[in-house]
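Entry 14. Ran structure prediction on the chain below.
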Amino acid sequence: MKQLKQQWVSKIEPILISQEKEAKEDDWYLGYISLIDFTIYLIMTQLDQTFPEEIKKFKKLNALKDKVAKIPEIEEYEKSPRAVKCYNPVEYFNSFKEEKMSSLAKGKMNEMSSK
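Output, structure tokens:
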């Protein structure tokens, strides 16, 4: 936990402070929708899982995250089973591996029963 706090103070917070200063008030980051908006959405969503209290002070970045979250396609994706709910890459990719192995096993079983 101490390492996480050090990461926050030394690396993450300074970047967010800089981005908060650059972000537009009540608008898209650049004044129009761009890839930056989606990137900030993903980063803030991930940080919300690890540093929920710390990110609250970044009002413009949180407002931008909320604005992107209200895009109908993003809302639909977030409700789907494809949505990433946990930002632990190992756990996330293992779930696909398990799904693939299960699918392969079913295919082998079907193949064997048809012989």
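The CA atoms of residues 96 and 102 lie 10 Å apart. Will compare against last week's run tomorrow.
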